[in-house]
Specification:
The protein is an alpha+beta fold. The chain folds into six domains: 75 residues, Arc Repressor Mutant, subunit A (Orthogonal Bundle), CATH 1.10.10.10; 66 residues, Beta Barrel (OB fold (Dihydrolipoamide Acetyltransferase, E2P)), CATH 2.40.50.140; 69 residues, OB fold (Dihydrolipoamide Acetyltransferase, E2P); 272 residues, no CATH class; 53 residues, no CATH class; 118 residues, Nucleic acid-binding proteins (OB fold (Dihydrolipoamide Acetyltransferase, E2P)). It has a five-stranded mixed barrel. Helix 10 crosses helix 11. The longest helix has 41 residues. The protein is globular and about 75 Å long. The N and C termini lie far apart (77 Å).
């Protein structure tokens, strides 16, 4: 039998299996259905004796997937009809956690430490609801089954006693140490970073048991810290041999054969604009002003799908990774560097294959016409955000002379970007102004400076052009009625918006349409509070009230962008959803998508979008962990110094203070010994019982760095009061006056501190 025949039979079998699964699920979801035994189901569904084993296998598979549940009495039913929720466990440092349901319409379920029943962070679980959601409170439940274990290995610090050892997980969300028998140490020494493989899963009153399978190294050794984080998130820079082999077989240059059938844009003036360190350049832009006053904007994206074919080793590995990961000291690419930094990267003055979206945009920012096609391009210049900013804002003479043939293009780009941004703001797009950090490392990986990453007009040009391109592509292919991948941001939960509205009411604000809020209402609020003391607190709480954006095979609006249609098309080198979108678009534009292919995509896309959303979250967490690590390492040298900061968050155990360089630390409630402070959960502030002194998000405070603990990645601050400086001549006078009339001078902040961290100025 040929390979083609075998593949066809497999596809038919898979299709038949899925049909049987759906038939069973539909039957169990009927209102009249009550949980049945295997024999009862077989009789009701008229399963022949010869198919009983197959029928049992189908039920077992549905159970493993969490789509059906078997009771202790061996009766089957769907979770939603049995007061059960299937979802992902999210652990919390103090031992409890939350189940994030598979169904996005269901809110998170609180799970106490006693109700975890051996579940670990990121496990896929079944939870039984013990208390339904009430006004202002989450639903509560307990874990009754673990469907899929997420932490087959755990990264941590090894320690030992006389008779046994244990690995203390680096991830605080994994509660409980991993017990290591003496004969499974495998030469690990106390204090070393290790990888422990779990051989026995935790139970209600018993920790997990494991064995040491890898020694990462001593914690003080350069590189061990980042490597530990990479191991924890299953991130690897190395690619499998077959993937490397395929990458090496790809030509380093574009040939004449490759460009057949493509539109030749090599004479069109275009540039890339990226950060100085970027090597995977996947987008280029061109611009022209038309006779009628409209703009012709070209967005040219690297044609990665030409080289990475479906189901090839490269494609399978890219899907597995889901995204490139940008750690503080390195990039872990989705594709081998031969592609990501080479033939796929839009480097200047060389021919490159591209996928072009050419848009005609009017003076109001409307896309009045567009064209999407495969192209061959040749980039004129590799520009940086810094240099474009210097040309547009600083009018740098040297750069203006060097790029004189591009200066007018940059001015047009700025003009159009402002038009597009104004259009977005008018329709209600939410624009949070949270700044990011830029961490400067030396050659050994040691942080030598931390500063705010400045977003300039150059960054905003590319941002606006990519946004309008993604919107145009999404809308075009929605109306094409073809399977597709969308980037969605669902409407927030009404309960969270009501709670948010109640909070801001106490600050003198309110939002319209609480029960079905429009993003414009939130954007209008952000505009009202801009520059005010309460801006920080309201922006922070608003962000927490919104859902996270994700990938979906179903079209839904993007709430944050206030747009009905949105996708990710513009970064196929570093995001798998963009890559699969390119394939779909090409198929549709060339010959259309036949019924067989449509069915195939409909079945594949839900799993792909879910996986990519999960890998994106993991990448974000890993990136954040490496940043936090290097921030703590940087602050270690500044223990005992005093800084000015702003309260960024308030909790029941203290308050977080953010310095001007984005570094954040905790002022613990236990260290605030001038009074007994109470946390007002409803209004997010601490208040002293005796003094009535309050601390709110946005307040300016002075703090001393008490501790920067690299192992726990925690920074502890202690509140500081500026001490009075009193002249000798004032001493006798002060003795005879009330304390309220004392003339106090704030103790100046150490000049060394100012050189490291610029003091925040009140506006």
């Amino acid at each position: 039998m040929s390979n083609i025949d075998e593949k066809l039979i497999t596809e038919i079998d898979t299709e038949l299996l899925e049909e049987r699964k759906e038939k069973i699920l539909s039957f169990m979801r009927e209102a009249a259905y009550k949980p049945m035994s295997f024999k009862e189901l077989a009789v009701i569904l008229s399963v022949p004796k010869s198919d009983l084993d197959l029928f049992k296998s189908v039920l077992d598979e549905l159970e493993e997937e969490g789509k059906i549940f078997k009771t202790r009495r061996e009766r089957y039913g769907v979770p939603e009809r049995m007061n059960l929720i299937v979802g992902r466990m999210q652990g919390v440092e103090r031992g409890y956690g939350f189940v994030i349901p598979d169904d996005p319409d269901i809110g998170d379920i609180y799970i106490s430490a006693e109700a975890m029943n051996g579940a670990m962070h990121n496990d896929r679980v079944v939870a039984r609801i013990s208390r339904s959601m009430t006004e202002g409170k989450r639903a509560e439940g307990e874990i009754i089954r673990v469907l899929e274990r997420a932490n087959k290995t755990v990264v941590g610090t090894f320690d030992r006693s006389k008779y046994f050892g244990f690995a203390v997980p680096d991830n605080p969300r994994i509660s409980g140490d991993i017990f290591i028998p003496k004969d499974e140490f495998n030469a690990a020494s106390p204090g070393q970073k290790v990888v422990a493989e779990i051989v026995k899963w935790p139970e209600k009153r018993r920790n997990a048991e494991g064995r040491i399978i890898e020694i990462i190294g001593d914690p003080d050794k350069p590189g061990t810290d980042i490597l530990s984080i990479m191991k924890a998130y299953n991130l690897t820079e190395e690619f499998p041999e077959e993937v490397i082999k395929q990458a090496e077989s790809i030509p380093d240059a574009v040939t004449e054969e490759m460009i057949k059938g493509r539109r030749d844009l090599r004479d069109l003036r275009m540039v890339t604009i990226d950060g100085e360190d970027a090597k995977d350049l996947d987008d280029a832009v061109s611009i022209e002003k038309l006779d009628k006053g409209n703009y012709r904007l070209g967005v040219h994206i690297a044609d990665v799908s030409y080289y990475v074919t479906e189901d090839s080793p490269l494609d399978k590995e890219a899907l597995k990774r889901g995204t490139s990961v940008y750690l503080v000291d390195r990039v872990i690419p989705m594709l081998p560097r031969k592609l990501s930094n080479g033939i796929c990267s839009l480097n200047p003055n060389v021919d490159r294959l591209a996928f072009t979206v050419m848009m005609e945009i009017d003076s109001a920012g409307r896309v009045v016409n567009h064209d999407i096609f495969e192209s061959v391009i040749n980039i004129n210049e590799r520009m940086t955000y810094t240099n474009v900013y210097k040309i547009l804002v600083d009018k740098d003479k040297e750069l203006c002379k060097r790029y004189d043939y591009l200066v007018d293009d940059f001015k047009l780009m700025e003009e159009l970007a402002n038009i597009l941004r104004n259009k977005r703001m008018l329709r209600g797009a939410i624009d949070f102004d949270f700044e990011e950090a830029k961490i400067i490392l030396d050659k050994t990986g040691k942080p030598i400076d931390v500063k705010r990453y400045e977003i300039t007009i150059a960054n905003k040009i590319i941002e606006e052009f990519m946004l309008v391109c993604n919107e145009t592509v999404a809308e075009r292919f929605f109306w094409a009625n073809t399977p597709f991948v969308y980037r969605i941001h669902e409407e927030p939960d009404p309960e969270k918006i009501e709670a948010f509205n109640e909070f801001i009411y106490n600050l003198g604000y309110h939002i319209k349409g609480v029960k079905k809020v429009h993003p414009r209402a939130l954007q209008e609020l952000l505009e009202k509070i801009k520059g005010k003391k309460e801006e920080r607190i309201i922006s922070t709480i608003m962000l927490r009230s919104l859902k996270k954006a994700r990938y979906s095979h179903q079209q839904e609006m993007h709430f944050g962008l206030a747009t009905k249609f949105y996708t990710h098309f513009t970064s196929p080198i570093r995001r798998y959803p963009d890559l699969i979108i390119h394939r779909i678009m090409k198929e549709y534009l060339k010959s259309g998508i036949n019924e067989f292919r449509e069915d195939e995509l409909i079945k594949k896309l839900p799993d792909i979008t879910k996986h990519c959303s999960e890998r994106e979250r993991a990448a974000d967490e890993a990136e954040r962990e490496t940043e936090d690590l290097k921030k703590v390492e940087y602050m270690k040298a500044h223990e005992g110094e005093v800084f000015e900061g702003i309260i960024s968050n308030v909790t029941s155990f203290g308050m977080f203070v953010e310095l001007d360089n984005t570094i954040e630390g905790l002022v613990r409630m236990s260290s605030m010994d001038d009074d007994y402070y109470v946390y007002n959960e409803k209004n997010y502030y601490l208040i002293g019982e005796r003094t009535k002194k309050t601390y709110r998000i946005g307040d300016v405070v002075y703090v001393k760095l008490a501790r920067a603990d690299i192992a726990s990645r925690q920074i502890d601050f202690i509140l500081q009061k500026p001490e009075p400086e009193i002249d000798d001549e004032q001493t006798d006078e002060i003795k005879n006056k009330e304390h309220s009339k004392k003339r106090l001078k704030r103790k100046p902040i150490d000049k060394k501190v100012k050189s490291h961290i610029k003091a925040r100025k009140k506006k």
